[in-house]
Amino acid sequence: MSNHLHLIISRKDNNSMPDIIRDFKKYTSSKILKTIHNEPESRRNWMLWIFENAGRKNPNNKSYQLWRQDNYPEELITNEFIDQNVNYIQNNILETGIVENPEDYLYCSAKDYAGEKGLLDVEILE
Question: Residue 90 and residue 84: Cα distance in Å, rounded?
């Protein structure tokens, strides 16, 4: 999934979901741009051009835009809805044809749900 991201997140204290999403986008955009600028990347100029053009179309940006301005958060209020969303996220990668099994995708929580340790820290929802 090179063009989008699915997350299940929780909030603590008085942090609002829009604030969490905003901070996530700000932090990851900064890190991604820094990596593009500092690491050898054959697509560097092309990626920066894409992000810069997107940024020019949005008056809220100073230069680059990596993330879309919209998102579709849903509150997971029942165990059934949580299970449904975890399954959707883990199986969404299969549509791309990159892997045959969700647990084979490096950035998927399916490995953790299968009892192994994945690349990312995951808190299992029960």
Answer: 10
